Amino acid sequence: MTQKKKVVVTGGAGFIGSNLVAELLARDFEVHVIDTLINGTREHVPSPAQLHEVDILDTKASAAIMKEASAVFHLAALPRVSYSVEYPIESNRVNVEGTISMLVAARDAKVGRVIYSASGSAYGNQETTPFHEGLPASPVNPYGLQKYIGELYLKMFAEVYGLSTVSLRYFNIYGPNMDPKGPYGLAVAKLLEQKSQGMPLTIVGDGTQTRDFTHVRDAVRANLLAMESSCIGRGEVINIGTGRNIPVNYLADLIDGGVGLRETLPSRVEAHDSLADNARAKELLGWEPQIAIEEGIAELKKKFGI
Question: Would you please indicate which residues are annotated as catalytic (active-site) residues?
Fold first, then answer.
């Protein structure tokens, strides 16, 4: 009987992590989840994944879990921009120190590869779009900076310790298991929840800001390809986005048909526009997005009973 390949998913009880865990299990991997359940939900961890309630800052405990793992997917983070602005020290501890801790644990456990969930927020405001990986990072908030520092550490661990690493820069991931109160839910899940409850849709600023909304199943597929690709492993940064951006107002129109009530919230400290150049993902991973925003929102509206 062939032994299952072991993989570890940090943050596997969260939104993106739980979707990744489910797909890994479907592909017959032995899956271990590291999660404190502070932001994640136990119910989101599908059986038979093994859940370890361990803090990513506990390097030794994490290394023990990672022993003999072919890959570690590092998704655990505090990804709310507003939280990082209000609590830069606390968010830095998780997003930067936690990432270093996971890299050391992976190095000590002799893991095959670390796939890091980076963020398109590292780009900040750029003069031109789409954003390609050759552009200088220009984050406009602590969260974007922290995630960018994580990328630099992954590249350094590849160069200094020979650890195979890659960073996937996500662009506005949405899909099943989003938490309307969580960071990824602010633009999509919260609007869906508001619509399902007959409430006005809350729009941040004037709603003209654009985002490249990427379905979680596309992001999960990128992770699996990154685990298997022989073209990477030296700390490469790869955009994971659709290559199409839409105004937040258009997102709201998809949800309420353009006829619902709207409320305006104050603008936040974040880039006005976001759009991924995904040529490198196609070249190095053979990845292309498959789910358009219209299709993804239509599917979610059914789940929300809209």
Answer: 143
- The pTM of the full predicted model, rounded to 2 decimals, is 0.94
pLDDT in tens, 132-185: 999 999 999 999 999 999 999 999 999 999 999 999 999 999 999 987 776 545
Q: Which residue ranges form the domains of the chain, and what is each CATH number? A: 6-174+214-242+275-285 (3.40.50.720), 183-210+244-274+293-303 (3.90.25.10)
Token look-up 């979610």 returns 300
| E strand or H helix that includes residue 265 | strand 262-265
